[in-house]
């Protein structure tokens, strides 16, 4: 089965990074639907290291504000939801549930470097699934890396021991502020056939 043009438009061709949000709220039910899609995306060894903190209140956005770079403040503060895409350094403690192969936990427990690399890479994948799942559910997504990760970790993640990867604001775009898509590299500039 292949997505039709309408599906490809929703996920890729017509999707844009929002410049402004409209007033429509994002419901808790929608966030549950979103995660139920995200969790199905593949990760290496089914390690599923990403953790997500959904900031939905004005208070939580104010707590995030000092960690944001200047260019991200207005769009985050006006977004209905901002997600901290994080990773759990101890993700391997759940491998007995996620992967039935014997000894998988010990691969990561014995090698901190491997565990961190695996968690960072695969939580990034899961954050990308979040963006695509959001689009599939009719949401717009604004991914960001302009923030102070240590401040975010101290403010929101410390109690869990999680590490910050990137932020994604979610909502419904105010299309009056849409701009043309920025250029992308063509196949010959970015790809090699071997």
UniProtKB/TrEMBL annotation:
Oxidoreductase listed as a keyword: yes
Provide the E.C. number(s) assigned to this enzyme. 1.1.1.298
Give GO MF terms, alphabetically.
3-hydroxypropionate dehydrogenase (NADP+) activity
Pfam families linked: Nitroreductase (PF00881)
Residue span, Nitroreductase domain: 22-172
**What InterPro entries does its record include?**
Nitroreductase (IPR029479), Nitroreductase-like (IPR000415), Nitroreductase_HadB/RutE (IPR050461)
Q: Report whether DNA damage shows up as a keyword of the record.
A: no
Q: Which UniProt keywords apply?
A: Oxidoreductase
* Gene3D superfamilies, per the entry: NADH Oxidase
Q: Which PANTHER family match?
A: MALONIC SEMIALDEHYDE REDUCTASE RUTE-RELATED
Its name, as the record gives it, is Putative malonic semialdehyde reductase RutE
Please report the organism this UniProt entry assigns to the protein: Novacetimonas maltaceti
Instruction: Give the gene symbol.
Output: rutE
């Amino acid at each position: 089965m292949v997505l039709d043009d309408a599906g490809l438009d929703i996920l890729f061709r017509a999707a844009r990074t929002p410049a402004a949000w409209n007033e429509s709220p994002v419901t808790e039910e929608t966030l549950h639907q979103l995660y139920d899609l995200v969790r199905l995306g593949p990760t290496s060894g089914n390690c599923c290291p990403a953790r997500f903190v959904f900031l939905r209140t004005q208070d939580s956005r104010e707590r995030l504000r000092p960690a944001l770079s200047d260019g991200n403040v207005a769009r985050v503060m006006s977004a209905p939801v901002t997600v901290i895409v994080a990773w759990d350094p101890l993700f391997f403690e759940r491998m007995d549930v996620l992967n039935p192969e014997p000894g998988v936990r010990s691969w990561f427990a014995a090698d901190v470097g491997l565990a961190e690399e695996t968690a960072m890479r695969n939580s990034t994948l899961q954050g990308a699934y979040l963006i695509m799942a959001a689009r599939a559910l009719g949401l717009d997504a604004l991914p960001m890396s302009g923030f102070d990760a240590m401040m975010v970790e101290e403010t929101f993640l410390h109690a869990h021991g999680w590490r910050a990867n990137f932020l994604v604001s979610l909502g419904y775009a105010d299309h009056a502020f849409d701009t043309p898509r920025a250029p992308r590299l063509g196949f010959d500039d970015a790809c090699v056939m071997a």
